Amino acid sequence: MKIATYNVNGVNGRLPVLLRWLNETTPDVVCLQELKAPQEKFPEQAILDAGYNAIWHGQKSWNGVAILARNAEIKEVRRALPGDPEDEHSRYIEAEVNGITIGCLYLPNGNPAPGPKFDYKLRWFERLRLHAAELFASSMPVVLTGDYNVMPTEIDAYKPERWVEDALFRPETRAAFKTLVDQGWTDAIRKLYPTETIYTFFDYFRDAYGRNAGLRIDHFLLSPQLASRLTAAAVDRNVRGWEKTSDHCPVWIELADE
DNA sequence: ATGTCCTCTCTTAGAGGA
């Protein structure tokens, strides 16, 4: 089973790119972030015509997350991260597909830091940590994937010294990610490629893609039940070179059948 | 500071976010 994550940066503006990528790579499950569309403007029919069921949680202008599945039922579990009923951002949706719990997340960017946006990022991270601990304790096969807005280590950033003050790389952010992973989760890309330079995001500025000046901020965290089934993981880097493309690349994992 | 690209609006230019 192939599971992918893709921060599309506008699901309607990016629809031709999304449909082409779905058609060419046929993942079984897809987690989307940054829909940038209200609930009623999600391109459901185009997704259905492409062969995918979908659930989504939209929001006007910002955020927005979705889970797509090909030839499988999507059983929605929740469409918000527990712990703060006041939080209006559409940043988390969770479902069961083929017996696997899929958590699709869009962690806050947090810039400028320090400041209220960075505080919100760290509070959101703490809520994720608590919810992840519950999922982990359930002994279900779980994947937590999406745009974490974190470079976990220095090898995950082009010129990391330039990012030490940034919300995506500050010590508090990296520590929060490490605390989460240390619950027992497996970072799928690093499990298979411990030291390689692998990026999932390239800024639109200054031809970052052409210069390979990227960041690794889109991640797959696997529970032990799934880590043992991991057979492949990769970034669809070429998609970043397409016309009218997102600033993120799709990332995917392959799991062996039980 | 800047670069680019998305979405929305007190809309065809500018603001906010990333």
Could you walk me through the main structural features you see in this protein, from its secondary elements to its overall organization?
The protein has helices at residues 15-25, 44-49, 116-137, 171-181, 188-192, 224-227, and strands spanning 2-7, 29-33, 52-57, 65-70, 75-78, 92-97, 100-106, 142-147, 186-187, 201-202, 214-215, 218-222, 230-235, 251-255. It is of the alpha+beta class. The strands form three sheets. It has a six-stranded mixed β-sheet with strand order 3-4-2-1-14-13. Helix 3 runs parallel beside helix 4. The chain is globular and about 45 Å long. The protein starts with a strand and ends with a strand. The structure holds one DNA strand of 18 nucleotides.
User: Ranges with pLDDT <50 over ≥5 residues?
Assistant: none
Distance between the termini: 10 Å
Strand content: 25-35%
In the CATH hierarchy, the third-tier topology is known as: Deoxyribonuclease I, Chain A
SSE run = EHEHEEEEEHEHEHEEEHEE
State the name of the first-level CATH class: Alpha Beta
Largest sheet: 6 strands, mixed
**What is the CA-atom radius of gyration, in angstroms?**
17 Å
The beta-strand count equals 14
Number of domains: 1
Give the count of helical stretches: 6
Helix content: 10-25%
CATH architecture: 4-Layer Sandwich
The residue-averaged pLDDT reads: 96
SS class: alpha+beta
